[in-house]
Design a protein that fits this description.
CATH architecture of the largest domain: Beta Barrel
Number of strands: 13
Number of helices: 6
CATH class of the largest domain: Mainly Beta
Order of helices and strands: EHEEHEEEEHEEEEHEEHH
CATH superfamily of the largest domain: Ribosomal Protein L25, Chain P
Number of domains: 2
């Protein structure tokens, strides 16, 4: 499990609301957010930007000890969603969810491809369709990413969510259509036309005649 044992993140309850209050907090080095889940009420909070940056640097769906001051309420939690400025990348708002042991959580996990794809070596083109997938999983089995080996994929081959699901821990389940394509290797240009022509010949269908125009005829038409 992606867990930071002993890491305690402290947040402050937040009274103010609205964009002006949020702007004031950000100017003072704080990030507004909310804490919810775990069978308890939702609490508006603010977290030090420095603390949040350190938490993000640890990467992935990191589970930590959350403490809400001054009540000293402590719970296991994780960052559920982070909104950032599209230009500066600075965090604007953070959603933190309390974790209940034995209860599954929903997260988005990135798909990472590895290996030297055979189909690409054959002249095909790799199309990475689904780079992230929604996952339901127990906290104890939480993973940061799913690594998919594409070494054996040939031209025209593909992998679906059902194929990638075999790589999950026992409690994991993708919340996606099992037929959804994750990655495919498109055939080289012209390969499909050649296959269609071969299929017609095997079926006894005559090949389409090639149109040949004589020079004289072409000149007359021009």
């Amino acid at each position: 499990m992606t867990e930071s044992a002993g890491v305690v993140i402290e947040v402050e309850p937040r009274e103010g609301r609205g964009s002006s209050e949020a702007g004031r907090l950000r100017r003072q080095g704080w990030v507004p957010g909310v804490v919810y889940g775990g069978g308890k009420e939702t609490v508006s909070v603010s977290i030090s930007r420095e603390t949040l940056d350190g938490l993000i640097r640890r990467g992935g769906h990191r589970i930590f000890k959350l403490r809400i001051s001054p009540s000293q309420e402590t719970a296991e939690a994780m960052v559920k969603e982070l909104q950032a400025d599209p230009i500066s990348g600075k965090p604007l708002h953070v959603d933190v969810i309390r974790i209940e042991r034995g209860h599954k959580i929903h997260v988005t996990v990135p798909i990472v491809l590895k290996g030297d794809c055979r189909g690409v070596r054959e002249g095909g083109r790799l199309d990475f369709v689904s780079r992230e997938l929604e996952l339901e999983i127990l906290p104890k089995d939480l993973i940061e990413l799913v690594e998919v080996d594409i070494s054996d994929l040939g031209a025209g081959d593909h992998l679906t969510v059902a194929d990638v699901a075999k790589l999950l821990p026992p409690s994991g389940r993708f919340l996606e259509d099992s037929h959804r394509v994750v990655v495919l290797v498109e055939k080289p240009r012209g390969a499909e036309a050649e296959e269609e022509e071969e299929a017609k010949l095997e079926a006894g269908e005559p090949a389409e005649p090639e149109l040949i125009r004589t020079r004289g005829k072409a000149e007359e038409e021009e």
